[in-house]
Every structure is written in C-alpha cells, then in structure tokens.
Amino acid sequence: MKKYIYLILCVLFVALVITVPELHSQTCHLNGDTLIMMAASPAFAPLKWEVGQNNMGGYKGMLLFVPFNAPETVPTVPDPSKATSNEELITAAGSFTFPAEGTYKQPIYLYSTEATVEYKAEQQGEADGISYKCTLGFFFPGNTPGMHAFNALIKNTPGYYIFEDADGKQMILGQPGLYATTGPSFNGGKARADRRGTTYTATVDSNYSAIFLQTPIDMEVIAGLKPAPSPSE
C-alpha cells in the first residue's frame, strides 16, 4: 500500500514540474539580469502612414550654433541600452547651459535665406559597421565684414547646430565627442542678378539619421525678434 502511495506522489510531482511553467509566468524563474533585459526598450515597430497627413518638406530659415567648448551641458541622447522607448532613443534630453564667466551666454542665432536650409543623412560604412554621414546646409546672403569674420571663425570650430523643420520639430546636429564641422564657401556672383553670399555645409558622423530636441529653444527670443517671457510665465 505504501509503495502505491509513493508511486502516486512521484507521478503527481512529475506532473507539477511539467505543468507549473505553463500555468504561471516564467518570470518567477528569471534572475535580475534577465528581468532588466525584459524591461521596456527600443524595438522594431510598424511604420504606418495616415492618408491625407501633411508632409511638407524643407526647413525654417532660422538656426542656432554653439561652439563645442562653450557650454557646460548639452542636450544628449541616452545610452541605447538605457533608452526605454523608440522615441527616447533618438531624442536629446537636457539643455544648453553656459558658465557665468564664459564668452557665450546663449546659442548664436543664424539667419538663412528662405528655402536654403537642407538636411540629409546618408549611410556610410560596411556590414556590421553602418552609421550615418549627416549634412546640414544653409545660406547667408551678402558681402559683409561680419559674415566674413564668422567664416574665419567657423571654418575650424566644431560645435552643435539646432534647426527646425516645417512641422516645428527642432533637431540637433552634433553630440559630445561627435561635433559638427562646418565648411563655408563664399560666392560673390558674376552678373548683377546673381545671388551672393556664403553657403555653409556642416557635417557629422552619427549613429542616428536624426536627433530631435526634447525641449525646444525659442529662436525668435535669441534673435531678439520678440521679448523673452517673464519668469512667472
């Protein structure tokens, strides 16, 4: 009789071992490292397009430039292993702050002629080493001493650019250690009807085809086109 009872108990034990993982969440068997891996993180998601959605190209004729050594803090993307969503992966959080004793107290405003701001990101590298060569172009008109002085300074000064698309989304070109470098090219024209000015081409190597700013910067305030909001606003 006892042998029969032991046999029944053994059968029940084996049945429990087989069925319990199917009846309960397997997380009860996971260690801490595995649980961290299962936390929310960037993942492939469907790319859907709503019929009738606006899709105007181009960028607004306002930009900001920050020399690489001017700010104390810079908006940055998270470490990919710490990003909790697809949006967070390509979003730069934080803001530009500048030391009280520094030369610059805010980003430098740059005007660009209408329909001359252009941005593109082309893939570069080989298998298992693909990244992007991001290029930002813009145009400043005229033949002024101020523009030529800017050209003299910008040609060998890496840094960061902020620009804005037609939908109002602001983007940043450059990250700490991966700064944007700028090549200015002046053309005074030949005929009286020719446009004269400097074309700027800024490039940077990046793991992302675009990086968006989490906290937009009011470029019109920096440009002096409107007053800064009061602290109470």
Give a description of the structure.
The protein is α+β, with helices and mostly antiparallel strands and 233 residues long. It folds into 2 domains: 36 residues; 165 residues, no CATH class. The chain is 20% helix and 27% strand. The strands form 3 sheets. Strands 3-1-6-7 form a 4-stranded antiparallel sheet. The protein has a 4-stranded antiparallel sheet with strand order 4-5-9-8, covered by helices on one side. Strand 4 and strand 5 form a beta hairpin. The radius of gyration is 27 Å and the shape is globular. About 6% of the residues have low confidence.
Summarize the structure.
The chain has 233 residues and is α+β, with helices and mostly antiparallel strands. Helices cover 20% and strands 27% of the residues.
SSE blueprint and pairings:
Blueprint: H1 2-23, H2 32-37, E1 59-67, H3 86-89, E2 91-92, E3 108-111, E4 118-124, E5 131-141, H4 145-154, E6 159-165, E7 170-173, E8 181-187, E9 197-206, E10 212-213, H5 219-223
Parallel strand pairs: 2-10
Antiparallel strand pairs: 1-3, 1-6, 4-5, 5-9, 6-7, 8-9
Primary descriptors:
233 residues; alpha+beta; 2 domains; 4-stranded antiparallel beta sheet
- The portion of residues assigned to helices is 10-25%
| Rg calculated over all Cα atoms | 27 Å
Using DSSP, what is the number of strands? 10
Task: Report the structural category.
Answer: alpha+beta
Secondary structure tally, helices: 5
Compute the number of structural domains.
2
Order of helices and strands: HHEHEEEEHEEEEEH
Strands ordered across the widest β-sheet: 3-1-6-7
Instruction: Describe the global form.
Output: globular
Uncertain stretches of 5 or more adjacent residues: 20-28, 32-37
Q: Overall mean pLDDT score?
A: 89
